[in-house]
Amino acid sequence: MKVGYQGAHGTFSEIAVQRYFEGKDIEARNYTNFVDILNDLDAGILDAAMLPVENSTTGTIYRTYDLLHEHRAFATGEQFVRISEHLIGIDGASFSDVKEVYSHPEALNQCSQFFRQHPHLKMIPYQDTAKSVEYIKNQNDPTKAALASFLAAEYYGCPILMKDVNDLKSNTTRFLCVEKKMTVQPDANKVSLYLVVNHEPGALYQVIKVFAEHKINMLKLESRPLKGQMFEYCFYVDFEGNINDDTLKVVLGEIVQHCVEYKLLGCYSKADSEDIR
To answer: What CA–CA distance (Å, rounded) separates 200 from 229?
Structure first.
């Protein structure tokens, strides 16, 4: 089974792949961007892909949702990964040597308290967390360090100078495993949906009312500007249930009546929040 993920070896996306497919025979392939991943999924070059869709600190990763809407790709599973940023240096270096820290801009932002506590450190944005480790290893300069995962440190053979320097220790990213075909397991209990409601008063209320009347628990409701449409919006909805259940068949049938556009993004089993690591 060929599985695609974004980033260099050692990114949190690769960790998500390893944990979701633990014990299974897979070939993980890394890509530089999400578009190439989904194009290869469309072409049958990949069997599945692992894509980040939400972070507990920074919120929804909209570019992923937009691509899921635009491609024939469906969520078949979910994985949580704790985002623990470690300060990684080169062999022989110590924390007192470090003057520059390289990493993805988002990772740098998530460690703002660390940089306030150590104002002598210069933050330098880099293309991604794992690539920043590769860069400092190649530079072989003890004054340069990187923020990345334990896997990046292991892959490039670099020591961790300081563990867990991110602001929030609970910082977690939610990933979706997506495939070309919609498959729904009997124990699936979560549904993701894309919709554009009718352009009339109360249309969104009518959709929410359907969930309430059938006692369906909504987990998420977010709006997103429609491409090419001035101040018009689509909605991404997550809710509990299995689309093969009779009640949900009725719910989805009623929701469609209030929409001008509608796509089922997937039905899958919720990740276990107690297994975040």
So the answer is: 16
CB 88 within 8 A of CB 133: yes
Q: Specify the 3-state DSSP secondary structure of 224.
A: strand
Task: Count structural domains, the chain.
Answer: 3
Residue 206 neighbours by CB distance under 10 Å: 17
Domain around 43: 2-83+171-179
* Domain CATH number, residue 118: 3.40.190.10
The CA distance from 244 to 115, in Å, is 50
- pLDDT per residue of the chain (277 residues) written in tens, 0 to 9: 999 999 989 999 999 999 999 999 999 999 999 999 999 999 999 999 999 999 888 888 888 988 998 898 999 999 999 999 999 999 999 999 999 999 999 899 989 999 999 999 999 999 889 999 999 999 999 999 999 999 999 999 999 999 999 999 899 999 999 999 999 999 999 999 999 999 899 999 999 999 999 999 999 999 999 887 888 899 999 999 999 999 999 999 999 999 999 999 999 999 987 667 6
Cα separation, 214 vs 228, in Å, equals 35
Q: Are residues 175 and 66 part of one domain? A: yes
pTM of the full predicted structure? 0.90
For 277, which DSSP code?
Answer: -
d(CA 233, CA 112): 33
Return d(Cα 65, Cα 71) in angstroms, integer: 10
